[in-house]
Amino acid sequence: MTQGTTIAWDDTVLPFQLDNVDMRGRVARLDGVLEGILKQHDYPPQVEALVAEMALLTALIGQTIKLRWKLSLQVQSKGAVRMIATDYYGPEKEGEPARIRAYASYDADRLTDAAPFEQVGEGYFAIMIDQGQGMTPYQGITPLAGGSLSACAESYFAQSEQLPTRFSLSFGKSSGPGEPEHWRAGGIMLQHMPKASPLAASGEGSGDVLKAADLVEGDDAENWNRINILLGTVEDLELIGPSVPPTDLLLRLFHEEQPRVYDAQAVRFGCTCSEDRVRQSLSIYSARDIEKMTTDEGRVTADCQFCGAHYDLDPESVGFEAKV
Question: pLDDT tens, 270-291?
Fold first, then answer.
């Protein structure tokens, strides 16, 4: 595999389907995107890992939304990591890259040496889709459970969409000859597309959070189990290493299912913040309200939590009573 091929697959999401079974999926490789997200903040390692996992999930799930739509993933918890938020902006035009941004808020003194998912406590995992002006946003939530953020996403699809879903993810810091250490991530998302089982559709059962296995039966269940066994053989280096292109990985895993690939979607780190947006958000406040926000230096300041941009404004120029 040449260096050119390596670069071509970095920061892309490749959609595919398995022709011999009723399944579809995506393969994602994140390199510069993840580095762009994490270099904005000095997160502890446990928080970095959670943000990396969330960004990778966002890329895999976001590829399905339409042009100009926005998909957001969010974790709200009572643990040391209080919130993780990601946004995926669909391409403005066909052929253009999608954009991803992410950040986390946490209590540093509550972090422990336990695994990253142990840093979140009771709470929920949410997926939201904004279809644009004049459309009602969609939101679905599921409890934080299962031992990982990817397990939460699998539960969301089983419970809210009745779509059996499986993720296999790998992420971490990597370095090669002559290059500095940097973040890389790779993953596969697999979905079965049958109708929900009668048990799930009728609302019967134990009341527990649904899992993928609850939604398939008969031949579908056999196929789903077999494909998941194959997916379980994937190695970390096949997901994030430079030597195996996603197309070769799909053939190695699922050659008997005849994988069919479609055009890859490029993704980039990108934020939508701007001075105009800050001014717009402040336009609902009176001069008296703005005065309360003014610093000792006589300025109104705002920081973007996603990209770290800092805005420094004249208080007389903002609010609905602005003089200039």
Answer: 877 777 877 887 788 888 888 8
210: pLDDT strictly greater than 70: no
DSSP 190-227: EEE-SPPPHHHHTT-S-SSPP-GGGG--HHHHHHHHHH
Residues 6 or more apart whose CB falls under 8 angstroms from that of 219 comprise: none
CA atoms within a 13 Å half-sphere pointing along the CA-CB vector of 43 = 25
User: Which amino acid, one-letter code, is at 134?
Assistant: G
Rounded Cα distance between 50 and 172, Å, is 11
8 A C-beta contact, residue 266 and residue 97: yes
Q: What is the pLDDT of residue 217?
A: 58
User: Cβ neighbours of residue 56 under 8 Å, at least 6 residues apart?
Assistant: 28, 30, 34, 169, 171, 185, 186, 187
Give the single-character DSSP code of 185.
E
Q: What is the CA radius of gyration of the chain?
A: 22
Single pTM value for the model: 0.84
**Span of 110-119, 172-181, 195-204, 266-275 with lowest mean pLDDT:** 195-204
Task: Enumerate residues 6+ apart whose C-beta is below 8 A from 44.
Answer: 106, 108, 111
